[in-house]
């Protein structure tokens, strides 16, 4: 399988999930500005939506949307326990959190990366993010991860988007549970491997490679 990614973008989430599950992926780096791929050319031809992540399956199909991709990967390796079994209420709870992260956290960051966003809109979005992170901080009280001691695909997603806070000058230092969560996730070997492969840690550059 091929994971089309951009270093540090939301595609880091499925990259982490694959690393945690021991699923080998071929990484294909995408220039999200020009929508081009270093090796294969036009990214629009791969994903007409124009954004990462996209997962190229061995049968030729392409799966898009991060929450769908991470669940697909988790189900390939159920023994890794990165997602509860389909059909269980626990799985619905996982999907509930994934939907919250994608709609209330992930998408709220988007205008903050746009230099044309007016200052008043920027301040409103920063305040909105802090409000939405407050709920997650409360959920993390007394827990290592969102659902307790078991790391799941939702944790990979939350960790990925929360890494953007520094870049957009969003101060989350008073959310102690969230800060502890970010530290715990960052220290996981699978997460370290994904970060290193994308050139997000010192000592290795990103590019097209294979990871497991």
Could you characterize what this model shows?
It is a single chain. With 212 residues, the protein is of the alpha+beta class. It folds into 2 domains: 2-80 and 191-211, Glutaredoxin; 89-188, Glutathione S-transferase Yfyf (Class Pi), Chain A, domain 2. 44% of the residues lie in helices and 11% in strands. It has 7 helices and 7 strands; from the N terminus they run E-H-E-E-E-E-E-H-H-H-H-H-H-E. The protein has helices spanning 12-21, 66-76, 89-109, 119-139, 153-162, 176-186, 189-197, and strands at 2-5, 25-31, 36-37, 41-42, 54-56, 62-64, 210-211. Strands 1, 2, 3, 4, 5, 6 and 7 form a 7-stranded mixed sheet that branches. Helix 1 packs parallel to helix 2 (66-76). It starts with a strand and ends with a strand.
Structural class: alpha+beta
CATH superfamily of the largest domain: Glutaredoxin
Distance between the termini: 11 Å
- What is the mean predicted local confidence, pLDDT? 93
Beta strand %: 5-15%
Largest sheet: 7 strands, mixed
- Report low-confidence residues grouped into runs of 5 or more: 203-212
Quickly give the CATH architecture of the largest domain. Answer: 3-Layer(aba) Sandwich
Number of domains: 2
Helix content: 40-55%
Count of strand segments: 7
